[in-house]
Design brief:
Blueprint: E1 4-6, H1 7-13, H2 19-27, E2 31-33, E3 36-37, E4 44-46, E5 52-54, E6 57-58, E7 68-73, H3 96-99, E8 104-106, E9 114-120, H4 123-130, E10 138-144, H5 150-158, E11 161-162, E12 165-166, E13 171-174, E14 183-187, H6 194-201, E15 206-214, E16 217-218, E17 227-229, H7 232-242
Helix pairs in contact: 1-2
Length: 243
């Protein structure tokens, strides 16, 4: 293992938070190397001899074994590591052996949505799967309150104006019974509550929303509320996709 790493890259690899949050911590002077505040993202850190602290807490620089989990998130659970109001989070519903690990959700599903959520301690994977510039597809099944008009289907495929800008083109397909959902929609952006806002902008109400795929990784038959570790083949597939 290479001992010397740029500061930001090391923090990301240690799984101490998202790249965006760690960048902010460095800029704000909250990170120290050998007791000295460092604001240079590329500052070289030697795992074997240096010490690194963030918010006055010393970090363990030896890399932990990487853990990659798939969760079929139930409705009513927050996609966050903790909640000050005591609500259920994706960490709190994991099997106990995983709750002690420093795992973070890869992206988010809003409280009322269900389906595929990844949790891991691989900061680089998290960054590249969630940053829009990498354009990883995410597929959802959706139950709308009424059938979309043909002209509105075309709007999804060309982009919909929201308050934070026009969306990128989406792939949308109408589903038939016996599926409990009436649309499959694929996007590669990750704006907050994006699909609910897209449908709402056209006058439709989303009754249920379930994510079933991230990139080439599929939810499959994993039951709601259950967790499993990714297979070596699935991990390789994810890592291959971000290279």
């Amino acid at each position: 293992m290479e001992l010397t790493r740029p500061l930001l890259k090391l923090l990301v690899e240690l799984g101490t938070g998202s790249r965006r949050k760690l960048s902010s911590a460095i800029r704000q002077g909250r990170v120290q190397v050998n007791g000295v505040v460092v604001e240079d993202f590329s500052y070289p850190v030697d795992r074997g001899s240096d010490t690194v602290s963030m918010d006055e807490k010393q970090l363990e620089l030896q890399a932990e074994p990487k853990v990659y989990l798939m969760l079929n998130k139930p409705a009513g659970v927050l996609s966050t590591t903790r909640d000050t109001r005591g609500r259920k989070t994706v960490i709190s519903i994991l099997p106990e052996k995983y709750q002690r690990l420093r795992l973070y959700p890869v992206g988010r599903l809003d409280k009322n949505s269900t389906g595929l959520l990844l949790l891991c301690n691989d900061g680089q994977l998290t960054y590249q799967l969630t940053h829009p510039k990498f354009e990883h597809e995410k597929e959802y099944l959706l139950l709308a309150g009424k059938r979309l008009q043909p002209r509105d289907l075309r709007k999804f495929e060309s982009g919909i104006q929201l308050d934070d800008g026009i969306t990128c083109p989406a792939k949308i397909m109408e589903l038939s019974p016996p599926s409990p959902f009436n649309y499959s929609i694929t996007i590669h952006e990750g704006r907050k509550r994006q699909l609910r806002r897209m449908f709402g902008a056209l006058g439709y109400h989303v009754l249920a929303l379930k994510r079933v795929r991230i990139g080439r990784l599929k939810l499959g038959e994993l039951k709601e509320g259950r967790t499993r570790e990714l297979s070596p083949g699935e991990i390789k597939m994810l890592l291959d996709d971000i290279r």
